[in-house]
Protein: Glycosyltransferase
Amino acid sequence: MPFFSVIIPLYNKEDHIEKTLQSVLNQNFKDFEVIIIDDGSTDNSVKKVKKIKDSRIKLYSQNNCGAAETRNIGVKKANAKFIALIDADDFWYTNHLEEHFKSITMFPMESLFSNAYQLKLSETNLINAIYNTPKKTTPHLIEDYFKASTIHPIAMTSSITFNKVDFLNLGGYNSEILSGQDLDLMIRYGIYKNIVFNPIITCYYDKSVPNSLSKSNHQISKEKLFSSFKEFEVANTSLKHYLILNRYSLAIQCKLASNEVTYKKLLPQIDKTHLNFKQKLILKMPKSIILLMKKVYLIFIKNGIYISSYK
Structure:
């Protein structure tokens, strides 16, 4: 039995999968298997995987059913007690599993473990994620996941490892959610389980790869996701603040996509006392000004300057 099972959901990532998979195989910590679930790719993704010869790789193919269910299937096929996830366009540095092993050794009874990560904003610009938590140098328990995640989340898909049994007991990824399945899972972990954070940077999340957040049906799905936790946020002020910030971000996406229906539904759910000055200002701006700001933001990114409305 390997110590880790690494799960990679694969769908039309021919330009990225070789680099991602090689970053997994190059780990300092060697005791793992790699389970790749091809979710009905129509490009050369599978051919790229088959070019890489390593006995630890197990490749499965299925008809397309989405990333959430694909990850659930991968977890069920896993032989290890601890599951590590990586998306097919993200990247692990060689210390990733080594640092997770360190965290698990220190906190063997806990459920979820996350390493610090970077955000790849462009081909030449990587920034460190910023967390709302006291500076520490060793793995430690996060007292309040939602408070710690108000700038960048403590945990994102490619930065985490979890205990397989606890994951299954939580219900795994909710495949009925069209967009934000990872966010939904992390909220449930934040409510029900302890999370261990290792402040050593071991991976990056590639935000330069296009996604489908601008689609109105994805925005509708996310609004419903946030609403599903309303009863919990009544008694949890940190969760309430966290959800309001996420609703704010979604409202901006809706405005840019001219999704007036979801935008108007979100506005009454955003208590503006939870927003900073920049956020309040952006929320009032017309779409044309926000689009112009986005263009300027992209120019800044190309020149190595990162500006966030969350700080």
Remarks:
- Residues 216-302 form one domain.
- The chain has 13 helices and ten strands.
- The radius of gyration is 19 Å.
- The chain has two domains: 4-206, 216-302.
